[in-house]
Design a protein that fits this description.
Elements: H1 2-6, H2 12-68, H3 71-85, H4 88-119, H5 126-136, H6 138-154, H7 158-183, H8 190-215, H9 230-261, H10 264-277, H11 282-301, H12 304-340, H13 349-365, H14 368-373, H15 378-403, H16 405-431
Helix pairs in contact: 2-4, 2-5, 2-6, 2-7, 2-8, 2-9, 2-10, 2-11, 3-4, 3-6, 3-9, 3-11, 4-5, 4-6, 5-8, 6-7, 6-8, 7-8, 9-10, 9-15, 9-16, 10-13, 11-12, 12-13, 13-16, 15-16
């Protein structure tokens, strides 16, 4: 009853509670659907087929990054800024500019990918080639879908911004795969799953476009003259793009390099570990969607005290959500894996334990990347992300041949923790804010931005 009372009205606390609860609900459903999808695919495809699907999807996601070109972060920031200032021409301009650029880049990348498939066909199996060929269709939809979601988040429509990718797409894919398994005349294969994923994404993309049309501010129906700042936006999206690229390398280096230095079956088993460890990111993913626009607002207002309170409270909420999940994996990881995925995936336990611990420490450090990106400090974030990506790749090259999957987990965890430590220091120096669960001011006593 008290919570319901706090959620009423248009105050900051009420908006954060409504957005946070809605976002957490979306993330819980996303985690449940992602786990269910992983279980279904792991059991139907086996370690080798699941590894091919996982490897190709990671590769396609990496290819799609240049098409996004860091624009989702720019769209969220500029949409929030345009709404605050009621500059509808700015909002119209940034949406139009980013969508046209993303479409052109994504089509070019898709064409290049097709050419690469044709030139390198002799080095891969037919199954790998057809799976990758279907994956190429993801590139335009991933790019444009991310911009649509960023626009909704900038308008504080956090739930709607996540619904197509996190709920509709996986739910449809699970349904399609189970129907194929039940009524198909042959075993399910990786390329069939990828084709069904393209279909599910296309449907989700259409729903997302409809949601954005409904959420558009009424003033945009008057078709205001677009306000374009191409040079300034391009200058901003370059670091955003490189940050996204470095983040993707950090997130995918272990999977991609394990596939190159190991085997697709190891990738399939390791995917179980990474999927489980990402349960610890439940709070981060949910709460960050809500806090990002407010980081920008409080920074632009020069309200350091509110920025500090929001950073601290979000970090503590993230940590408290991650702690019990980590303990469960540490103490009961092997029986959980055997029960959910099957006995053939139990060797994922140690990578899971390592990654889960690293993600717990990540939540304790706070939403540092979002703080930097949303407060015009993306250049600093880029330098940190680049150093972390280089460290990640080097450590994977060293550790995977020695320890296999556990080496991949150790390399990824080490790079992640290095990045968090440096980011924490930079946030303190640049913003005078402690982004961690401690929430204390050790170095700066002033209450205004310099």
């Amino acid at each position: 009853m008290q919570l319901h009372t706090h959620m009423q009205g248009n105050g900051l606390k009420a908006r954060l509670l409504r957005g946070g609860i809605g976002s957490i609900g979306i993330q819980l459903l996303d985690i449940a659907l992602s786990l269910l999808l992983a279980v279904v695919l792991a059991r139907l495809l086996g370690p080798d087929g699941f590894g091919i699907y996982t490897y190709v999807f990671a590769l396609v996601s990496l290819i799609s990054l240049p098409a996004k070109f860091g624009m989702p972060g720019l769209v969220t920031r500029e949409t929030a800024r345009a709404e605050v200032t009621e500059n509808w021409g700015l909002m119209q301009g940034v949406w139009r500019w980013t969508n046209r650029l993303a479409l052109g880049l994504s089509l070019a990348l898709a064409l290049v990918s097709v050419v690469i498939i044709m030139l390198t066909a002799g080095h891969f199996t037919t199954l790998q080639i057809t799976t990758f060929a279907w994956g190429v269709a993801f590139v335009p939809m991933l790019a444009l879908g991310s911009l649509r979601g960023a626009s909704l988040k900038g308008l504080r429509k956090v739930v709607q911004g996540q619904l197509p990718e996190k709920i509709i797409r996986p739910a449809l894919l699970i349904t399609f795969v189970l129907l194929l398994a039940a009524f198909g005349k042959q075993d399910v294969s990786a390329d069939q799953v990828m084709a069904l994923h393209v279909l599910a994404m296309a449907i989700g993309f259409g729903v997302g476009a409809w949601l954005l049309q409904r959420a558009r501010p009424g003033q945009l129906t008057l078709n205001p003259r677009p306000e374009l700042h191409g040079k300034a936006w391009f200058k901003s999206v370059v670091p955003f793009a490189m940050i996204a690229g470095m983040r993707k390398i950090n997130n995918s280096a272990d999977v991609l390099m394990l596939g190159m230095l190991g085997s697709t079956s190891l990738v399939g088993i390791y995917r179980v570990a990474t999927r489980g460890a990402k349960l610890n990111a439940l709070g981060v993913a949910a709460i960050n969607q809500v806090t990002k626009p407010y980081f920008t607002r409080f920074h632009n207002d020069g309200n350091k005290q509110r920025l500090q309170r929001l950073a601290t409270s979000s970090a503590r909420a993230n940590f408290m959500l991650a702690l019990p999940i980590t303990l469960a994996f540490w103490f009961f990881g092997e029986p959980i894996i055997a029960l959910v995925f099957g006995q053939e995936y139990v060797t994922a336990y140690w990578p899971l334990a390592i990654l889960a611990g690293a993600h717990l420490l990540r939540t304790a450090s706070g939403s540092l990347g979002s703080l930097l990106n949303m407060t015009d400090n993306e250049d600093a974030n880029l330098k940190i992300a680049t150093a972390s990506a280089v460290c990640n790749v080097v450590l994977n090259l060293i550790f995977i041949p020695i320890w296999g999957m556990s080496g991949a987990a150790a390399a990824t965890s080490s790079a992640m923790l290095m990045r968090r430590i440096i980011s924490w220091w930079v946030v303190r120096e640049n913003l005078g804010v402690d982004g961690s669960i401690l929430g204390i001011n050790l170095f700066r006593k002033n209450t205004e931005y310099q």
